[in-house]
Design brief:
The structure holds 2 protein chains of 2 kinds. By secondary structure, chain A is α/β, with parallel strands linked by helices. Chain A is about 55% helix and about 15% strand. Chain A is built from 19 helices and 15 strands. In chain A, a hairpin with a 3-residue loop joins strand 14 and strand 15. In chain A, helix 14 packs across helix 15. The radius of gyration of chain A is 47 Å and the shape is elongated. The N and C termini of chain B lie far apart (about 35 Å). Chain B is built from 8 helices and 2 strands; from the N terminus they run E-H-H-H-H-E-H-H-H-H. Chain B is globular and about 50 Å long. Chains A and B meet through helix 7, helix 8, helix 11 and helix 12 of A and helix 3, helix 5, helix 6 and helix 8 of B.
């Protein structure tokens, strides 16, 4: 079976009123590149295509429906039509929006339905492909790459089951079961006993089915919990390492503060020592002291003769010149002696002059202000210390803001998940454990061990076979079912192994500089030796997985991607651009102008046929574009312009459509 | 008995934040006294400490060891300030000698007469008045005080006729 998207049409919705026709002449090109600047509602269009395919729009609530009406508009209705081709037969889904009531009503049109039928009615054979989680695999946005690694969002193993039609093996098993049930129902020798036994088996099967569903849901929950635990542990690790980093920065800055404080202390001590020397405080002090000495020298102070010399003379009978000293003369000498400095004062003045000579600079052209240089350095050091202290405060605040509360909360959640994980594992273990002699078939409803339950069911079916005379048939059915189960298991394992091998081979080529490898395919993809990768790595791995699946399965699906090259580096773009045309029968991409470089041209070069479409809104910002539209391939609506053609596509350079 | 260096209590209080620091740049009361004295000499401002502040204390009768090596130069600045105060030029030998005799007493441990000590205490008191007039608040950090003090002192000397 092959599904193609032929085009779509929208009116009265958030996306522009437009009709996109992917058919070129009579053919559907392998690659369709629709250039839509940001703001042209790529996401809305993608959501609409998905909603049309999976029928989810019927379940949308009032607010969800209203969110698709253009902001500021009051129109009562809107419409989105998706045109598909299933094995070259048309299938159309039409979503009619009633904004007055906040509802969406579907209608489906196909040959098998005999025309238009109200409601969402995909062909029964397609229902499994049109489930939400499956549609996400081939109609996807940039988030899917990461979602493929999230067990909550995707069903990677279910995708394999669906794409490779492994479900057929399960269906055959069910057919065998139903046939045997029919056989036992109508071949009764003792109808009463047989009915009782049939009912017993029915109850057994019902209970086993409940247990299996329980096992499935617990396994799924466990897978989610394990992913959550990984995420939380990673967050806690990041938190702790970020905290450690901050703490290290804080400790380092504190050390720098201490060092700066020490330097300031030493410098302040040095400055204080200089302040204690008055001659260093100002050149004028120094000059003034020098002048004092100079003037004292000039005035011959202290004099050579001291006061004591004259007092001593006055006390002698004769003067130093030999004359006799009378009392009057003696009195006068003593009186005039006061005009002379004492020996001690003279000694002080001499000491002062000595200090001035020894300590003061005589070079007037070289002012001495060593203290000022040190004051400048001190100022700078204080400024630096303040800066470092502010940094400390900032880091301290940041640590407080990050807070233990966050970490406690994360640890609390982790503990809760771990408890839940332990409970889930216990339940799964109880269901999957080997049978035990302690299990009582009389109390089978309280037993959850599948091995025991299936063994008892087999015994009960044996009894029924005996009652109904279908023992041989039962054995054949059992062998057949066993073969089917083993085939399914083997096919599943082989396919997964093959897909992983192919994916990893391609990944090693695409991401040759920074390779990642897929380890396991469970509900989600598991990477080898790492929990996650960069956006580019995950996107590359996602493409590789999906294209490998779509390439190998018997059913063929289109691949529609929003911004396919966003997040990929140049080399990965080129490799993916080469790979996609080899693996997809139809690839549709919503692109922006910056994705052209190294991607759209490579896609075009490697594809059988490529259709180039450019869509932009009619706004003030794009009014100038209306004047330079090509003469052919242009379709306009009341609010948008659609231009077909490579030349226009390559020259269009609006990245964002601003209104 | 010789007179002592005198410190006003308000001076002691004003410096209380930075004198208590463990850094020990300001080790003794003489440091506080010296800050004020130098500023008084720089500006030529003097006042009677006993009238400016009722609480005062004769805290020391000699130059402490940190200042011993510089005491002659400090006295030299006092001599210049005092001569200037009384309008005596150094060329006037006799008047200069008279003043030297009034200020200097080498038999005293400070090398100063009581009058010399009184003059110093007056300049220290006047210097403190000038300090508080030019600071918005008590100093809190010794290093910041040293920067502000040095700048204030140099500005005062630059603007003084006495020293220029």
């Amino acid at each position: 079976m092959r599904i193609d998207i032929l085009g779509w049409q929208s009116s009265g919705l958030r996306c522009p009123n437009m009709e996109i026709n992917l058919i070129s002449g009579d053919n559907l090109p392998q690659i369709s590149l629709i250039q839509m600047p940001n703001g042209t509602a790529k996401t809305t269009t993608l959501t609409m295509i998905r909603a049309a395919m999976n029928g989810d729009a019927e379940k949308w609530n009032h607010d969800e429906v209203m969110s698709f009406r253009r902001v500021g508009e009051t129109n009562s209705d809107g419409c989105f039509i998706l045109k598909l081709s299933i094995d070259r037969k048309p299938l159309t889904f039409e979503l009619n929006f009633n904004f007055d009531e906040g509802k969406v009503v579907f209608s489906t049109s196909s040959q098998s339905l005999g025309g238009i039928t109200p409601g969402w009615h995909p062909p029964d054979s397609l229902r499994r492909f049109f489930e939400s989680k499956f549609v996400r695999l081939f109609i996807f946005d940039g988030e899917l790459a990461q979602d493929l690694f999230n067990p909550e969002k995707t069903e990677a193993s279910q995708a394999i089951d669906t794409l490779f039609q492994l479900y057929l093996l399960k269906e055959i098993e069910q057919i065998a079961e139903r046939n045997w049930e029919q056989a036992t129902k109508y071949q009764s020798s003792t109808p009463q006993g047989q009915t009782r036994q049939l009912n017993k088996i029915k109850e057994f099967k019902k209970h086993i089915e409940t247990v299996k569903q329980k096992l499935e849901s617990k396994k799924k929950r466990l897978s989610v919990i394990e992913a959550e635990i990984e995420k939380l542990e990673s967050k806690i690790g990041d938190h702790q390492s970020a905290d450690r980093e901050l703490q290290e920065q804080l400790d380092e800055t504190k050390l720098q503060v201490t060092k700066a404080e020490k330097e300031i202390e030493l410098l302040a001590t040095e400055i204080m020592n200089q302040i204690r020397q008055p001659q260093l405080l100002h050149q004028s002090f120094s000059n003034s002291l020098i002048e004092l000495k100079s003037k004292l020298d000039k005035a011959k102070l202290p004099e050579k003769a001291s006061r004591q010399f004259f007092i001593d003379i006055a006390e002698q009978p004769k003067c130093i010149c030999g004359r006799d000293l009378c009392s009057e003369t003696r009195q006068e000498i003593k009186k005039r002696a006061d005009l002379y400095l004492s020996d001690h004062t003279s000694a002080f003045l001499n000491a002062l002059k000595e200090d001035i000579r020894n300590n003061l600079s005589y070079d007037e052209d070289r002012p001495i202000y060593p203290i000022n240089n040190q004051i400048d350095v001190l100022n700078k050091n204080i400024f630096e210390k303040t800066r470092l202290k502010n940094k400390c405060d900032y880091l301290q605040q940041k640590i407080i803001e990050r807070g233990d509360d966050d970490l406690k909360e994360l640890n609390k959640s982790l503990d809760e998940y771990k408890i839940e994980k332990a409970q889930l594992e216990k339940t799964i273990q109880a269901i999957t454990r080997p049978s035990s002699y302690k299990d009582d078939p009389q109390m089978y409803k309280k037993v959850y061990c599948l091995a025991s339950l299936e063994k008892w069911l087999q015994e009960e079916e044996g009894k029924l076979a005996e009652i109904s005379g279908t023992v041989e048939k039962l054995h054949k059915k059992e062998i057949f079912q066993k073969i089917l189960k083993l085939s399914l298991k083997k096919a599943n394992n082989n396919l997964k192994e093959l897909i992983i091998k192919t994916c990893n081979h391609r990944l090693s080529e695409i991401l040759y500089r920074d390779p990642i490898q897929i380890d396991k395919i469970e509900h989600s993809l598991k990477l080898e030796g790492q929990k996650s990768g960069s956006v580019g790595q995950l996107l590359s791995a996602g493409y590789t997985f999906l294209t490998t699946l779509l390439d190998r399965g018997k059913n063929q699906f289109p691949l529609l991607v929003d911004s396919p090259a966003n997040g990929l580096d140049g080399a990965s773009r080129r490799e993916i651009g080469k790979l996609i045309p080899k693996l997809c029968h139809q690839f549709i991409a919503f692109t922006i102008s910056t994705e052209r470089e190294g991607f759209t041209n490579i896609l075009n070069e490697n594809s059988d046929s490529t259709k180039f479409i450019t869509v932009f809104r009619k706004t003030k910002g794009t009014s100038h574009l209306l004047e330079s539209l090509p003469s052919q391939g242009v379709t306009t609506s009341d609010n948008c312009v659609i231009v077909e053609g490579k030349d226009y596509f390559d020259l269009f350079d609006i990245e964002e459509d601003k209104e | 008995m010789g007179k002592s260096f005198r410190l006003r209590q308000d001076t002691k209080d004003w410096f209380s934040n930075i004198q208590k620091t463990t850094n020990q740049q300001i080790k003794t009361d003489f440091d506080l006294y010296y800050f004020c004295l130098i500023l008084g000499l720089a500006t030529g401002k003097y006042s009677d400490p006993t009238t400016r502040c009722k609480e005062h204390r004769d805290f020391r009768d000699e130059f402490v060891s940190d200042y011993k090596p510089h005491q002659n130069l400090i006295i030299g600045l006092l001599i210049r300030a005092e001569l200037s105060k009384f309008g005596i030029s150094l060329e006037e030998k006799e008047d200069t000698k008279k003043h030297l005799i009034k200020l200097i007493d080498p038999s005293s441990i400070t090398n100063l007469t009581n009058e010399g000590i009184d003059s110093m205490n007056a300049y220290a008191s006047g210097g403190f008045d000038y300090l508080t007039e030019n600071f918005n608040s008590k100093p809190h950090y010794v290093e910041e005080f040293l920067i502000s003090y040095t700048k204030l002192l140099q500005k005062a000397v630059d603007e003084s006729q006495l020293w220029n």
